[in-house]
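Notebook, student rotation project (T.W.).
Task set for the rotation: take a protein with a known small-molecule partner, predict the structure of the complex, and write up what can be learned from the model alone. Partner molecule chosen: coenzyme A. Sequence and SMILES entered below by T.W., checked by me.
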Amino acid sequence: MGWSRRPLRKVRKAIEHSFVVVTMWELRGNYRRMVGFSRATSDRAFNATIWDVVVHPDFQSRGLGKALMKSIVKELRREDISNITLFADPQVVNFYRGLGFRPDPEGIKGMFWYPDSRY
Ligand SMILES: CC(C)(COP(=O)(O)OP(=O)(O)OC[C@H]1O[C@@H](n2cnc3c(N)ncnc32)[C@H](O)[C@@H]1OP(=O)(O)O)[C@@H](O)C(=O)NCCC(=O)NCCS
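Predicted structure of the complex:
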């Protein structure tokens, strides 16, 4: 999937309609910049899906990605949501595995519809 350029208007809408948004910031005096981001959409009862997990390259490999994930999962658990899913790029499957996520549980496959499909 990766991070393609997306229209800002739609990014804003996606964030506004997310159930949980978690951000991490570097603070230095009056200067601040976002160094971590993740969000989850949800039916607010049973299911949530985590999207757009990203840590600024300067801050990777310091445990922030793990902290970001723990924070968003904790927030979803606090809302009593038990089915938490995500879509992992191949190179990050083991990152999520280390956090307790399992690929294809009981053989279940994620399936995608694309606009060039038959209907
Ligand atoms: C994936 C990403 C969020 C990880 O964040 P990070 O801050 O570098 O990760 P952490 O330092 O918290 O690593 C936590 C653990 O996962 C491991 N890990 C990190 N990236 C990994 C990877 N790509 N594959 C396997 N393990 C990984 C670390 O070694 C560490 O293991 P430990 O707990 O045994 O020490 C970050 O690399 C990133 O933003 N990548 C670009 C965007 C991206 O690919 N997002 C996911 C899209 S599905």
